[in-house]
């Protein structure tokens, strides 16, 4: 499976076991490291240890420093290694917004014994319907999200080779990322497997 890489933030001078907050991120853990460049993210990593928590910020599989394989939002839930370390107290909580929140919801569905609480924000537990819940003018954004996670493209950039009116009126949805210049990826799997299919 390869190695997972995470940054661990703990209170200074505290030797006791701590409740641990897990943040699993597909967008790089680096912004959490520097308070000056990303106060919104690094604030979590530095503030919570000040409240007596340990914080683990982990690159999910095959993203940035961690090794693969990676499938969007699927592999994140099974990488439960924290409680084998010497510093947790046996209870783990989740924190984060959007994809980080979705990872928490999916992790909670597995019922890991150490999971005591989650704080998902701006996240949905019904990922199967996600491609169809988007309004037509948001479909290009949905496609960009898949391409960003798999291709490391620039999130704010327009998909290449795409005329938006034609793009959103053309079926099937499963081919969106390929029509926008990307290669076949998890978007096709999400949109071509029935709910409950353990592909």
TrEMBL record:
GO terms for molecular function: hydrolase activity. SUPFAM superfamilies: alpha/beta-Hydrolases. InterPro entries: AB_hydrolase_fold, CocE/Ser_esterase, Xaa-Pro-like_dom. Residues 4-145 form the Xaa-Pro dipeptidyl-peptidase-like domain. It comes from the Bacteria. Gene3D superfamilies: alpha/beta hydrolase (3.40.50.1820). Keywords: Plasmid. This is Xaa-Pro dipeptidyl-peptidase-like domain-containing protein. It comes from Rhizobium favelukesii.
């Amino acid at each position: 499976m390869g190695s997972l890489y995470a940054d661990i933030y703990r209170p200074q001078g505290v030797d006791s076991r701590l409740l641990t907050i897990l943040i699993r991120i597909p967008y790089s853990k680096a912004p959490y490291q520097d308070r000056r460049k990303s106060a919104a993210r690094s604030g979590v990593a530095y503030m919570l240890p000040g409240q007596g928590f340990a914080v683990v910020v982990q690159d999910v599989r095959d993203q940035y420093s961690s090794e693969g394989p990676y499938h969007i939002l699927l592999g994140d839930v099974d990488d439960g290694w924290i409680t084998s370390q010497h510093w947790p107290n046996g209870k783990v909580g989740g924190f984060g917004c959007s994809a980080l929140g979705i990872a928490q919801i999916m992790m909670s569905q597995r019922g890991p014994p150490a999971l005591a609480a989650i704080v998902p924000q701006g996240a949905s537990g019904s990922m199967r319907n996600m491609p169809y819940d988007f309004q037509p003018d948001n479909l290009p954004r949905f496609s960009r999200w898949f391409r960003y996670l798999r291709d490391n493209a620039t999130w704010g950039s327009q998909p290449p080779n795409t005329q938006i009116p034609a793009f959103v009126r053309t079926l099937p949805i499963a081919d969106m990322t390929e029509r926008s210049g990307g290669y076949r990826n998890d978007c096709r799997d999400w949109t071509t497997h029935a709910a409950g299919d353990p592909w």
